[in-house]
Queue: 2 jobs
Job 1
Amino acid sequence: MKFIISRENFLLPLQLVAGAVERRHTLPILSNVLIKVSEGTLWLTGTDLEVELISNVVLSGSQEEGEVTVPAKKLLDIVKGFSDSSEILFSVEGNKAIVKAGRGKYSLSTLPASEYPNLEDWQGEVEFEISQANLKRLIDSTHFSMAQQDVRYYLNGMSFETEANVIRTVATDGHRLALCRIGYENGTLPERQVIVPRKGVMEISRLIEDEDKPLKVQIGSNHIRIFSTEFIFTSKLVDGRFPDYRRVLPKEGDKTVLSSKETLKQAFSRVSILSNEKFRGVRLNLASGELKLTANNPEQEEAEEVVDVEYQGENLEIGFNVAYLIDVLNALSSEKVKLTMSDSNNSALIEDAADDSALYVIMPMRL
Amino acid sequence: MAKLIHIDMDCFFAAVEMRDHPQWRDIPLAIGGSAERRGVIATCNYPARKYGIHSAMSTAQALKRCPHLKLVKGRMARYVEESRRIREIFSRYTDQIEPLSLDEAYLDVTDSDLFHGSATLIAEDIRRAIVEETGLTASAGVAPCKFVAKIASDMNKPDGLFTVTPEQLDGFVSALELRAIPGVGKVTWEKLQGMGLFTCADVRAYPFDKLVRRFGKFGLALWQRAHGQDERRVNATRQRKSVGAEVTLPEDVHSFEQCWEVVETLYGKLHQRLQSCQENLAIQSQGIKIKFADFVQTTAEHRQHRLDKEAFVPLLHQALSRQQGRGIRLVGVSVALPTEADSQQLNLALPSLECRSA
């Protein structure tokens, strides 16, 4: 096999698929990228058996069809290292892959393409189109609440749900929950709920941009696949049932606070500096018109901030992990934020004051 | 300067047995598991120590050294009860008590006015009260810091007391052999000797940065100890960190199934022990320990919020994946208890833990 390609055209798809390549080499071939030339197109594939990424680019110039696998990281570093306008000649000779540009020549080890693992064939059962920007919003609004290496394995991922005219994502680690939903206008979606593993979620978030370009999403019984013009991404699904978010949305909140998001975020960020590094507890004292934030640490250092808020009602003292609050305020893009609370033992609901499409539930800490 | 007392009961389990069975008082006596079941010695009395028997020695070896050794199985419930009586005695002198085990505790009497503030006289009075009320003897170490108090309690053992005053501290520490310092085990002691370090005075003369580069955080601790520094205060709220159960098997086993049978038996014990200190069975992680025939041990653990027997299955597989054909002589199961912070953070009312249908 053989092809000629400019550095620029090779680098983009190569960088894309290299992200999916396994970094912990459990199987040698998983640290390789599959390279295939067929019908005038170059196809690149990377996988770690959990997720698979395929990208393609149309070739011009002389070429010979065929396929081979080479070490992904090394190939990427070599291509990256060539000067900007290089023409790269890639060929296979015996069991070596030869990469040439200018006066440089690199001979890489190969493993046969026939040994490269394929995700088994599967059928899409639900299919819909969504803009990159909308998918990005669904993921970026919630991903930080996913659990990490929790024995409740179904929490180590994100719940993707379709229902009539809504697409929804939910993530929770047992202490907090994040939910985001967007409307779907191109028809009615079947009711479906799947869990995308953490790695798959982070990979998708890396791949897509905040732009209007359309994506096609396909959901099967064990896989989710996303088609764009630049790549085809597939992830296995987590086999399990995600807890019903409706059961943890607080309903009894009677204390509603409105505040400038930016002011509140800055105040929490500053106060957090003197919170206990391990437990991150911060105390909130709510009174009519103002919210006082305090934190202290084992070194007996103390921080206090008072933020003006729109609130009339009873006083309330409640503690939270400040990192959870900052995560939420970072995810919100609104000018004003709304907090709804009831007492110091029950969860708080946080949302954009003008838009309830993203909801955040945080359980308090006892301080 | 702090005034700390380290109280250490003299061969506690054996002393309780000798008090309850005076006929065992003058013969070599040891508490431990049977040699057939490959048990080890937990404690032995002084007549037994004359034969070179010490705690943690295998019972088989102890019997080789002293064939007429009187071996008794031990009555843990009785020892726990005695330990409570002793702690009650401590509490008359101070509420700053940090128990280290059933037979050992640190007391902080810095702020005490008893005996005109003399820690030595307080320690003597505690020892007197223990003998009078329980018939057992204790040794005490009095010093301005924890590790010196601990070393001091060993100086005039049994039934003795040793005080290191603030004025004596520097000289006392300087002459100390490094292996006397808690935390310096056999391996570290060998390494230190290899570096030409034998006493605290040697460490003082050694470049600090080299020590830290070699031993990391422990190097810093060693440097501080060698200078008589130990900032650790008596921790009266010290909490239990883990609960476990383990057994040395009468004979090596080899298969997963055999090990699993042992785990099932141990699980019952673990469950019971956990329940007695943590009613809702909330934990932080659970783990398995395997000791192979060559005494090399391995552990596998997993974060977990509630004790779950089935979660031991993958852990046992994980531990046994390192078996490499070796026999298995010991199996243990344990859980780490949640720390203060874990219980401070409240949980969402998610439906309870779902198990993957295997």
Job 2
Amino acid sequence: MSTMNWIAIGTITDIPQRGARCVATPQGKIAVFRTAEDRVFAIEDHCPHKGGPLSQGIVHGAAVTCPLHNWVISLETGKALGADDGAVKTIPVRVDGERLFIALEALADRAA
Amino acid sequence: MTEKLVIIGNGMAPGRMLEHLFEKAPGQFDVTIFNAEPRVNYDRIMLSPVLSGEKTFEEIVIHGDGWYVANGVTLYKGHKIVAIDRAARTVTSDHGVTESYDRLVIATGSVPFIIPVPGHDLPGVLSYRDLDDVQAMLLAAQSRAKAVVIGGGLLGLEAAAGLSMQGMDVTVLHVMPTLMERQLDPAAGYLLQKAVEERGIKVMTKANTKAIVGNGKVEGIELADGTIVPATLVVMAVGIRPNAALAKDAGLTVNRGIVVDAGMQTSDPDIFALGECAEVGGQVYGLVAPLYEMARVTAARLAGEEGTGFVHSDTPTKLKVTGIDLFSLGDFADGDDRQEIVLRDASAGVYKRLVLKDNRIIGTVLYGETADGAWFNDLKKKGTDISEMRETLIFGQAYQGGSPLDPMAAVAALPDDAEICGCNGVCKGKITGTITARRLTSLDDVRAHTKASASCGSCTGLVEKLMVLTLGDTYNPAAVQPMCSCTTLGHDEVRRLIKAKGLKAIPAVMQELEWKTSCGCAKCRPALNYYLVADWPDEYADDYQSRFINERVHANIQKDGTYSVVPRMWGGVTNSHELRAIADVVDKFDIPMVKVTGGQRIDMLGIRKEDLPAVWADLGQAGFVSGHAYAKGLRTVKTCVGSDWCRFGTQDSTGLGIRIEKFMWGSWTPAKVKMAVSGCPRNCSEATCKDVGVICVDSGFEIHFAGAAGLDIKGTEVLGQVKTEDEALEHIVALTQMYREQGRYLERIYKWAKRVGLDEIRRQIMDDGEKRRAYYERFVFSQKFAQVDPWSERVSGKDKHEFRPMASVGFAEAAE
Ligand code: SRM
Ligand SMILES: Cc1cc2nc3c(=O)[nH]c(=O)nc-3n(C[C@H](O)[C@H](O)[C@H](O)COP(=O)(O)OP(=O)(O)OC[C@H]3O[C@@H](n4cnc5c(N)ncnc54)[C@H](O)[C@@H]3O)c2cc1C
Ligand code: SF4
Ligand code: FES
């Protein structure tokens, strides 16, 4: 059986609008994004192209442009948009009032 | 034999008539024009963009002076005709010039209606009809005081928007309950009022003007209910009257306008009338489309052709206020025999209404989304039975026939006779046909040959789509490349509009210039951020989320996600104290690589992001500031050892380099700017491949610019020579400021210079001392806000979120 393990990571105001913050985990960094409309997404901080830190990119709409070579990654699906091919893992996020949680089910699986 | 043709009035209608006439019957007439306005024929429709600052008068001239010379036309500017003698077949102007005619054309247009309330003749009361009115309004706007516009119709609202963009506090008084009630139903009128008010313009409806009050000049308006609205400028835009007095005095038949038959002939067979002064079929007109139809008919008759006469057709109304989209056509009053289809989308601010009779469209009101206007107009004109598509009709053409079409396909699907340009009555087939027949490749050519998009310009997008359809990939849209796919505007247009409309934040730019995406993309956001920083140094709040990571954290990101740090070494000069501090930082933070750069300073590579503030703190202690090695801004000023040491040195090149760097560091520019100063023409600091370089010579300083040695290699051009260090600095700073104000984002100096022309730059910087000084001062002003060391700012806590993870999830938590 798979359980959802929701872990509190802070509040939405910790992240600037159209920006991102990182969460360090044993499996590497997770980038948590906040869009202009206050939607929150979490994805691996690792560009499918050459591993660029996506958390450092420019956030526009529900996408981020990688700071290294400008791939555009959808925050909703983790997929590269446009002509590029590739995807990063997305991590479920829950917003409860101001508070943010991410689900680390997969991490728990891997860690176990 | 040439006949003598005299025209009274030089507006848009006779201008168009002459174009047709010269095409049909070249040489048949010897033409003389008398115009009360002291100027050539211009696009009166576009006065509003001139008022708002979005266009200049030169840009709206239709026929320049050269056109009259080329066509042998005698134009009397500033001559008003005061009498027509039909027996003698002459006209006489107020300056006493008498000219005889074989054929006479009266095209005196309209006069604005002035409500005859007390005070209507006070200084400060204007109408809105010609360039003089616009100039008077612009002059009044300089005082930034209060303006009242009487009349909430098309003209009144355009005047109000323009005055408000010029910084005036504007109130619109409208006598009816909703704005533009002749063109809009109350729902659309309400949305329009909201949009107008959002621009900071006050709107008072049901406001009945009783008097204009003031002592010697306008001070306010008194309404019928006793309210006083203060004002220093009053613009009356309450309607127009055909200007027919002259014709009446001459004994021609005049009703509301000068009565003409379908061939535009007045009651005197040698005299024609056209334009707003003419009444045909019992109607007078106030939009250019029907006037252009009159022009076509008049030209044909003068050329001796019979052909079709004038036929009435409805013309859609559009408001030319940037950012407000409305379209109105035909008859939209309620009625028992009518049905309507309405669509509202409150969150998007969209309202659409179609009025149908016998399954045919008779009226259309579109607000907020007007792209389907042309299609509805086509259905109405053809009387198409819409019962088949009734369910989806209001959603527009894209929804007909299954899945939504993209806008290109929607244009492709228009029939050949669909009207594209309402002003000039040009249909799709004419445009595509002309493009092919004449092998046209630019928008300007298409305008010149078909007239489509040549008047109010609101159909430009459609015309461009047709060009793409016809020419395929060979069409390079308008030579103006849009900034990115979020907009159709090019960089220059956006820069101009930011200034003209006083836009001071990225959301304001996106809203006003109708960005197609909600918050831009990684291409346009950094560009807009730069333009706003450069244009409003004191008012704009830099948007860090719109900067590339390097500029956001003031270091260069590396392939592994670590950063490099390059402190400034002014002019490439250092000392043991600085070197020791660098050595200590390298040891303390275990920095894996230290390298001397090509820009005469030291690069520390492989620093973890979390360590950046601490690294800066230590470097700051030793007196270092950021070297901006990451910035679209001033990078390094390379120097050589110069006269202090070198046996060939002619001037203190090191000292000048340091002075320039200390003066200009921290400034943002469209792309990076690298400079160098060499002490003699041996040029050891490689000044002749920099964005700006100085070669010192015995007699002074030779200033170079527009070099490159990166992706392109290009030797510099000489700007000019000056005698003193002070002058060298002033010239370099002014040149940089000119580039800051005109450059497109990411366009380096050599590309900008190629675009605007080396001579133009030399003229403004070398020859025009006043301009140079003004550029210099603007740079100095902006440095007040820019010359802040970003590193010490971050050390003291700014943006600390950037450098720390938000949370750390331990192994135990993750595994739980
Ligand atoms: C460090 C340095 C190489 C070195 O080890 O010496 C360097 C390093 C980089 N250069 Fe450079 N350039 C360096 C001198 C130059 C020079 C020589 C010079 O300035 O005298 C040139 C050619 C001169 C010119 O610019 O015309 C140069 C032409 C470029 C270009 C091509 C620019 C162009 O418009 O053609 C780029 C790419 C760009 O900017 O888009 C570039 C971009 C870069 C970037 C920023 C690449 C990047 O985007 O990450 C490199 C950053 C590495 C880092 O983290 O420091 N670098 N680069 C030099 C830093 C100088 C300094 O002290 O600031
Ligand atoms: C601000 C503004 C915005 C407009 N916007 C639009 C729009 O978006 N769409 C649209 O279709 N229409 C618009 N119009 C209307 C359009 O401009 C007019 O319908 C059109 O210009 C009228 O052309 P015309 O040649 O009949 O007269 P005019 O262009 O008015 O020309 C008449 C000329 O005759 C001269 N004249 C008058 N009497 C004499 C005399 N006795 N002797 C010598 N010269 C004389 C006048 O000085 C004037 O220059 C707008 C008008 C204004 C003022
Ligand atoms: S030349 Fe410049 S951009 Fe290219 S690898 Fe070297 S430092 Fe990087
Ligand atoms: S690593 Fe992200 S685009 Fe290359």
